[in-house]
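Input C-alpha cells:
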C-alpha cells in the first residue's frame, strides 16, 4: 500500500466572488522509501499541492474544492485540526523553498529545532538540545556546539538549508516534502544538499517528494516523476521510462530547453508562447496554444491521462504518435 495517495485533488483561489482553479484533478501516490519528483514551470501548482498535503492552506484564499489526501491509510482532509497538527512536523514534514524567510529571524536555530521536538516528543529541554546537536551534526553543520546558538542571518544559504532539513528530520518523519531545496544555492552546495537528503533517506527510510524545475536534479535523485502544467499532471512515469520515452510535447520542451556543453547555440531553445493566467479559460488541452502538434481535437476536448507504456501515463490526444 502507498504511504501517500492523492486522488483527484482540485484547488481553487477565491477571487472577486468566484473560485479560479489552480490545480485540477491531480492524482499520484508515493510508496514507502520512494522518491517522487514533481517538475514543471513556476506557477504550475507544484508548491500549492505540497501546501495542501501539509494542511497549510487553511485560513487562506486558497481552497481545496475536491479530492482526497490519504496518508498512511487516513484521509487528512477528514481529520480534526488537532489530529492534523499531531501528524504535521512529526510523521510528515516539509523543507520550504527559501530558508531565510522560513526560519524565524529572531530565534536561534537551536531553539527552532528543539521546538519541534518538544511539540511532538515527551522529552526535557536538555534532551531536546542534545538531540538538536545530533541533528546539526547529522546534516553536517560544522562545529554544532558553536552554531546551535546562532541566528539564521549568521549562517550561509547552504547552512540555513541544512538547518531546515534538520528541523524537518527531527522526528524522523515517514514523508519529507522538499520544495525547491536547492534554489539560489551554487552548484556545489546544491549537490551537497541533495546528497544529504538521499543519505538521510537511506538511514531513516523516509519517503521524499522533491519539487523542482530542474530535470537534471530529478533524473539523478528520483524513482518516479510527475510533470505538471497549469495545475494538471500531464505526464507521470518511472524516471527511467520518462527520460527514455518522453511522450508529451511539454515534457520534451522542458528537456530541450536545458543547455548542453556539446552545442554552440547562442540562444537557448524555449517553449513558445506563455502560460495562460488562472483567470484565462483555455478550451481543450491546456497546452494546445503553445504546442507545435495542435490539431482540432486538442482545441475542443481536454485529454485524459492514459497509459502509453507500463508505469507511464500521458495526458495527450496523440500520445505515442508524435
Amino acid at each position: 500500500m502507498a504511504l501517500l495517495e492523492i486522488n483527484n485533488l482540485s484547488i481553487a483561489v477565491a477571487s472577486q466572488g468566484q473560485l479560479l482553479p489552480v490545480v485540477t484533478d491531480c492524482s499520484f501516490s508515493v510508496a514507502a522509501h520512494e522518491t517522487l519528483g514533481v517538475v514543471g514551470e513556476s506557477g504550475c501548482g507544484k508548491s500549492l499541492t505540497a501546501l495542501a498535503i501539509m494542511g497549510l492552506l487553511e485560513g487562506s484564499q486558497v481552497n481545496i474544492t475536491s479530492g482526497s489526501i490519504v496518508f498512511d491509510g487516513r484521509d487528512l482532509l477528514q481529520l480534526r485540526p488537532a489530529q492534523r497538527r499531531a501528524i504535521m512536523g512529526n510523521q510528515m514534514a516539509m523543507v520550504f523553498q527559501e530558508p531565510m524567510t522560513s526560519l524565524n529571524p529572531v530565534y536561534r536555530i537551536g531553539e527552532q529545532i528543539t521546538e519541534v521536538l518538544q511539540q511532538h516528543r515527551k522529552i526535557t529541554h536538555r534532551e531536546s538540545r542534545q538531540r538538536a546537536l545530533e541533528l546539526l551534526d547529522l546534516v553536517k553543520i560544522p562545529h554544532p556546539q558553536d552554531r546551535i546558538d546562532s541566528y539564521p542571518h549568521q549562517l550561509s544559504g547552504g547552512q540555513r538549508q541544512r538547518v531546515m532539513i534538520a528541523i524537518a528530520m527531527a522526528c524522523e518523519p515517514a514523508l519529507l516534502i522538499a520544495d525547491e531545496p536547492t534554489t539560489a544555492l551554487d552548484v556545489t552546495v546544491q549537490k551537497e544538499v541533495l546528497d544529504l537528503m538521499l543519505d538521510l533517506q537511506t538511514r531513516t527510510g523516509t519517503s521524499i517528494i522533491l519539487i523542482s524545475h530542474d530535470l537534471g536534479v530529478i533524473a539523478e535523485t528520483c524513482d518516479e516523476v510527475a510533470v505538471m502544467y497549469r495545475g494538471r499532471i500531464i505526464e507521470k512515469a518511472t524516471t527511467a521510462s520518462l527520460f527514455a520515452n518522453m511522450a508529451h510535447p511539454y515534457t520534451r520542451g522542458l528537456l530541450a530547453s536545458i543547455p548542453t556543453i556539446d552545442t554552440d547555440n547562442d540562444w537557448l531553445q524555449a517553449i513558445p508562447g506563455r502560460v495562460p493566467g488562472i483567470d484565462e479559460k483555455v478550451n481543450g488541452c491546456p497546452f494546445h496554444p503553445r504546442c507545435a502538434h495542435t490539431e482540432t481535437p486538442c482545441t475542443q476536448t481536454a485529454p485524459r491521462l492514459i497509459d502509453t507504456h507500463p508505469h507511464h501515463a500521458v495526458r495527450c490526444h496523440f500520445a505515442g504518435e508524435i
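The CA atoms of residues 96 and 179 lie 5 Å apart. The longest helix spans residues 187-204.
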